[in-house]
């Protein structure tokens, strides 16, 4: 689960990280007063969407003005003008895709005098199973580009969970960022604070781009992104409250209501599978036969007929889906339950796309019988390979 920049800054501030003073605005009328409450004299008006690249982004609507999603205002009145232009408009950035994202919230922040822009992030390094910091002097820019063109400018510092974050970690990062004097000292406090925030809140990603050194020589978090492990949210009510459903894929929201693991992808073959490992294998074999999966969907071990019905409905309402592959290995999950779910869902929403079903395991005969007697146009498959071939053929003609 991701949160907005202003929320990430609040979280980081509560752990002692230095952030600017700012105000959240959702209605244009509130903007001028919000800016007036800040010290000024420069105000930065920032569109809050769950995507980066806002500064270089463009609004779809001409009324939103020429500027991107991060604008410098020289007075509270100008900040209010920018907020009014951006609110409700659609911002397209490198990360939003062509459709862009509607701006519903604005963050007005005090402007800073920037000396240098640095890059700092923390993530779970799956290779080492540790939290790692990534630091670079090339802040403010697209870090993927830096990684590609000048990888030597990116320094990774892994933290051993047995020791936790130690002073030498912070010193190495300060050095990698080229910090001296007061800023280096502040880095010595910032790194353990970020590590603590990351661990205590079960974050999966923390990205500060840019972390700046001000003209006065102080470190400041100027942009912040945070993502959290969805499986740990049950123990972080404060973080869960920060969820903004309007930023999420509507189908993923629906899936989470039914406790289904669903991730929307760009291909055209919808998959319904039980078990994450089998779902991955199913996606792999679809790719192997030359097509792309439209989603990852794990209905889980002990799904009910209702859950299967909802899962099937989610797949069929995706306009990108041109064919469906159901791949079930019945263990705890019974094949007849899956079959009943499919039949119920098709009765409700209809079925226009080719449907290939591979059932195996507990109650497989009963499941096959239900499907065969349903009168639905279903292509049965004997094994995973056969199923993948059949659905790819059906879609590609
Ligand atoms: P994004 O990464 O989505 O484009 P940022 O918050 O990083 O958004 O802002 C883009 C750029 O705008 C920053 O790299 C920085 O140069 C400038 N900027 C952002 N916030 C401020 C601020 N409070 N004061 C001065 N400049 C800012
Ligand atoms: Mg940024």
Automatic annotation (TrEMBL):
ATP binds at residues 46, 53-55, 109, 112, 117. It catalyses: succinate + ATP + CoA = succinyl-CoA + ADP + phosphate; (S)-malate + ATP + CoA = (S)-malyl-CoA + ADP + phosphate; GTP + succinate + CoA = succinyl-CoA + GDP + phosphate. Its EC number is 6.2.1.5. InterPro entries: ATP-grasp, ATP-grasp_succ-CoA_synth-type, ATP_grasp_subdomain_1, Succ-CoA_synthase_bsu_CS, SUCC_ACL_C, Succ_CoA_ligase-like_bsu, Succinyl-CoA_synth-like. One of its GO terms (biological process) is succinyl-CoA metabolic process. It is an enzyme of class 6 (ligase). The keyword Cytoplasm does not apply. GO terms for molecular function: ATP binding; magnesium ion binding; malate-CoA ligase activity; succinate-CoA ligase (ADP-forming) activity; succinate-CoA ligase (GDP-forming) activity. Pathway: One-carbon metabolism; formaldehyde assimilation via serine pathway; Carbohydrate metabolism; tricarboxylic acid cycle; succinate from succinyl-CoA (ligase route): step 1/1. GO terms for cellular component: cytosol; succinate-CoA ligase complex. Pfam families: ATP-grasp_2, Ligase_CoA. Binds 1 Mg(2+) ion per subunit. Residues 9-239 form the ATP-grasp domain. Substrate binds at residues 274, 331-333. Mg(2+) binds at residues 209, 223. Its cofactor is Mg(2+). It comes from the Bacteria. Succinyl-CoA synthetase functions in the citric acid cycle (TCA), coupling the hydrolysis of succinyl-CoA to the synthesis of either ATP or GTP and thus represents the only step of substrate-level phosphorylation in the TCA. The beta subunit provides nucleotide specificity of the enzyme and binds the substrate succinate, while the binding sites for coenzyme A and phosphate are found in the alpha subunit. PANTHER family: SUCCINATE--COA LIGASE [GDP-FORMING] SUBUNIT BETA, MITOCHONDRIAL, SUCCINYL-COA SYNTHETASE BETA CHAIN. Belongs to the succinate/malate CoA ligase beta subunit family. This is Succinate--CoA ligase [ADP-forming] subunit beta. It comes from Hyphococcus luteus. The gene is sucC.
């Amino acid at each position: 689960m991701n949160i907005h920049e202003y929320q990430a800054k609040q979280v980081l501030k509560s752990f002692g990280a230095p952030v600017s003073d700012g105000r959240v605005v959702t209605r244009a009328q509130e903007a001028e007063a919000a800016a007036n409450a800040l010290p000024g004299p420069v105000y930065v008006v920032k569109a809050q969407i769950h995507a980066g690249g806002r500064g270089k982004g463009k609004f779809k609507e001409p009324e939103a003005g020429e500027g991107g999603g991060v604008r410098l205002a020289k007075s509270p009145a100008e900040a209010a003008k920018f907020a009014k232009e951006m609110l409700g408009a659609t911002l397209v950035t490198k990360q939003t895709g062509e459709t862009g994202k509607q701006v519903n919230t604005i963050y007005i922040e005090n402007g800073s005098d920037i000396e240098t822009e640095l890059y700092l992030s923390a993530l779970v390094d799956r290779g080492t199973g540790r939290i790692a910091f990534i630091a670079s002097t090339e802040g403010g820019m697209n870090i993927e580009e830096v990684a590609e063109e000048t990888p030597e400018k990116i320094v990774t510092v892994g933290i051993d969970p047995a020791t936790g974050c130690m002073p030498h970690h912070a010193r190495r990062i300060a050095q990698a960022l080229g910090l001296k004097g007061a800023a280096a000292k502040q880095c010595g406090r910032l790194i353990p604070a970020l590590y603590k925030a990351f661990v205590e809140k079960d974050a999966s990603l923390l990205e500060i781009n840019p972390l700046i050194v001000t003209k006065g020589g102080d470190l400041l978090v100027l942009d912040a992104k945070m993502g959290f492990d969805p499986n740990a949210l049950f123990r972080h009510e404060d973080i869960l409250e920060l969820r903004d459903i309007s930023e999420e894929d509507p189908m993923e929201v629906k899936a989470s209501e039914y406790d289904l693991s669903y991730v929307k992808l760009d291909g055209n073959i919808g998959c319904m599978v039980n078990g994450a490992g089998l779902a991955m294998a199913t996606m792999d074999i679809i790719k192997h036969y030359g097509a792309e999966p439209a989603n990852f969907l794990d209905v889980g071990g002990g799904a009910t007929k209702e859950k299967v019905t909802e899962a099937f409905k989610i797949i069929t309402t995706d306009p990108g889906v041109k064919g469906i592959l159901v791949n079930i290995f019945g263990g705890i999950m019974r094949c007849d339950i899956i079959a009943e779910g499919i039949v119920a869902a098709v009765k409700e929403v209809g079925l226009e796309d080719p449907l290939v079903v591979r059932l195996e395991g507990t109650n497989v005969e009963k499941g096959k019988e239900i499907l065969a007697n349903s009168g639905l146009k279903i292509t049965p498959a004997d094994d995973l390979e056969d199923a993948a071939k059949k659905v790819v053929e059906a879609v590609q003609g």
